[in-house]
Amino acid sequence: MTDYVERFLDYLRVERQYSEDTQKAYRSDIHEFVRFLAATDPNAQTVDLTQVSALDVRVFLSELYERGDSTRTIARKVSSLRSFYEFMERNDAVSHNPFAGIQLKKAGQHLPRYFYEKELTQLFDTAQEDNSPLGQRNQLVLELLYGTGMRVSELASLELDMFDQAAQVITVTGKGNKTRIVPYGRYAKRALDQYLSDGRPQLMKPDSQPNHLLFNQHGKPLAPGGIEYLLKQLGKKAGLTQKVTAHMFRHTFATDMLNNGADLRTVQQLLGHSSLSTTQIYTHVTTQALQENYRKFFPRANQ
Fold it and tell me: Which residue of 69, 75, 155, 204 could cross-link 208, Cys pair, CB 3.0 to 4.6 Å?
């Protein structure tokens, strides 16, 4: 069974081109299911994943619900295991997928967290106080996250040849190795020009990757975790009460685009969503903002 798990993870890495974090999540979900099966039959020498029954799956789900896992978390684990057994079925390791017919309660739709204008101003003002090489890099990180709506993994993997500086567009490589063209504005251009001419050369070391955009203080590529860390520190320094994450910039980009009149299809293309339904979550955010402003500014709204 270990062999099948590793082959499945290789498939996710090579063919599906999933990120390391996504691969880790799949591995964790499969191992959790293996531990559950081992606990249900302590006398068994090994766990046989090819002999899982529908009853095993129901008991596993009951345990997840009883210990308080959220519907969203359970749905993710079921999705991971369903994909694993689909892979097993395609490779003739099992005759059926025990997770194929599982129906879960729909997870409550949580509105994405985004920045208010005052919070964005605080963040950008704080970043601009530091004009060191790392400070210039951090300013560029903020400008690209907010100005393009790209994912943190996409930002971390940017290389110089992805930029067309004359046209001010970036060829972004997203999920499933799909590429899309994303424009950037004058603020991001100014931050990019300064970083390329000043900050980046100072951060690079003799063994640095010459085509990579963002580096840490050791001249190594800045990882997604490093980006999240610097954002967290900037948020604290700026005095923001909520935790700052890269995804909040993506949410804010989409929300501001729609609030200023962009159509949903354009936002979908800029974000790299494969389905328009994924982008539609932001219409709830803009509708909520509209209702709040209506209640705030229209005298008869609360009478």
Answer: 204
Q: Looking at 77, 137, 151, 212, which residue is catalytic?
A: 151
Contact in structure between 127 and 135 (CB atoms under 8 Å) = yes
State the helix-helix crossing angle for 117-128 and 224-237, rounded to 10 degrees. 100
pLDDT interval class at 108 (50, 70, 90): low
Nearest 10 degrees: Cα torsion 254, 256, 257, 262: 120
Residue whose C-alpha is closest to residue 126's, from 139, 137, 114: 139
Q: Please tell me the class of the 117-294 domain.
A: mainly alpha
Q: For domain 2-90, say whether CATH 1.10.150 is its number.
A: yes
Instruction: Tell me if residue 282 is catalytic.
Output: yes
Whole-number pLDDT of residue 208: 97
- Residue 151 bears catalytic tag: yes
175 is catalytic: yes
Q: How confident is the model at residue 303 (pLDDT cuts 50, 70, 90)?
A: very low
Contact by Cβ (8 Å): 171, 262: no
Checking if the pLDDT of 240 tops 60, the result is yes
Q: Which of 77, 137, 212, 250 is catalytic?
A: 250
pLDDT of residue 275: 78
Q: Where are the domains of the chain?
A: 2-90, 117-294
Token digits for 302? Answer: 């609360």
Asked if 218 is an active-site residue, the reply is no
